[in-house]
Amino acid sequence: MAISRNVDLLEPVNLAEHLEKVELYLGQVCQIAGISKMQLDYWTNKAQIPTKGKKQRIYDMDALETVMLIKQAKDKGLNLGAAIEAARRFREQSAGAPEVA
Q1: Is 1 inside a domain boundary?
Q2: Domain membership flag for residue 101
Q3: What's the half-sphere exposure (Cβ side, CA atoms, 13 Å) at 57?
Q4: pLDDT computed for residue 15 by the predictor
Q5: Which of 76, 90, 75, 63 is nearest to 35 (CA)?
Q6: What is the CATH number of the domain that holds 87?
Q7: Higher pLDDT, 60 or 8
Q8: Is 92 inside a domain boundary?
Q9: CB atoms near residue 78 (< 10 Å)
Q10: Is-contact 69 91, C-beta < 8 A?
Q11: How many domains does the chain have?
């Protein structure tokens, strides 16, 4: 009886509200994006993607989104320079767009 009473106290958790706190290591970003570590290193330098960490790069969700947008643009045939620019512009437009409820 006590267990079901405790379960009734719980509410659904909205994980999206907490994603901005998540930080990923280079290997995790590569696995999510489907790219090699060498590609990610190169893209990070070329696109000036901000990272944290001294010995190992740590990526936040904004950095992961940038990597995923670059990957998407590359998959659609853009060269790296154009893919980086497309990702940058997309993020700028998204930042200025009103949120949809």
Answers
A1: no
A2: no
A3: 21
A4: 86
A5: 75
A6: 1.10.1660.10
A7: 60
A8: yes
A9: 16
A10: yes
A11: 1
Using DSSP's 3-state secondary structure scheme, residue 51 falls into coil
Provide the domain limits for residue 28. 18-96
pLDDT tens-digit readout, 15-73: 888 888 899 999 999 999 999 999 999 999 999 999 998 889 999 999 999 999 999 99
pLDDT for residue 95: 83
Residue 11 dihedral angles phi and psi, to the nearest 5°: -130, 160
* Predicted local confidence at residue 1, as pLDDT: 46
Q: Could you tell me if residue 41 is inside a domain? A: yes
Tens of pLDDT, residue by residue over 65-94, are 999 999 999 999 999 999 999 999 999 998
* DSSP secondary structure of 55-97: SS-EEEHHHHHHHHHHHHHHHTT--HHHHHHHHHHHHHHHHHS
Q: Rounded to an integer, what distance in angstroms lies between the CA atom of residue 101 and that of residue 99?
A: 6
pLDDT of residue 34: 97
Place of tokens 């700028």: 92
Q: In angstroms, how far is CA 100 from the centroid of its own chain? A: 20
Q: Which tokens hold the place of 37?
A: 């570590």
